[in-house]
Amino acid sequence: MFTELKKLIAKRSLTITVAVLDDEQIRVNVVPHARLADSKVNEQIKYSNKSEVASVPEEAIKALTTPISITGTAEEIDAKFPAILCEYVESHVELQETLDRASSEIAEAVKAIDERNKSKGNAKTVKKEEKSKSEEPKPKADETLPLWWTDKAAAAPGTKPQPAPTAVVDTASPSSQTLLTQSSEVTQQ
Prior knowledge:
Order of helices and strands: HEEHHEHHEEH
Shape: rod-shaped
Structural class: alpha+beta
Largest sheet: 3 strands, antiparallel
Number of strands: 5
Helix content: 40-55%
Distance between the termini: 121 Å
Strand order of the largest sheet: 1-2-3
Strand content: 5-15%
């Protein structure tokens, strides 16, 4: 019996109970215990990676602690129990290996995502540096165009400044009191 259980107890502890149900019937229970490492498989998925990395379903983790219960006469249990245990242990070990493989794949996926995000961050930094290098430096105040080139109200050097536009009330239609602006050329006439 313990030869069959050897692979299972190598990974986790278990409890075996034997109870008499009546004069002829015996029940044998084998209950694997949960390990702390079982619940940590999904903890390696960071909050920022939850949309990109699938977690292991809780049902799969709980399946590692699924017990087996055999009921029968002492002779039946003696005859069939080793074969039933072999099958149980084999399926349990396969499930454990699958969980371990999933855990390592999750760790690799999280690592790859972190590296990708890090390289994206580095690429953005490089692009910002290239952009700032390619931008022309801002000219100093004395290197800019003279104000009279860009603002018509400013006078060119050696000329008289033009007066600013003025506002006049149109007296022809007193009801509307329309405000008209006239340029300095019109007011000089």
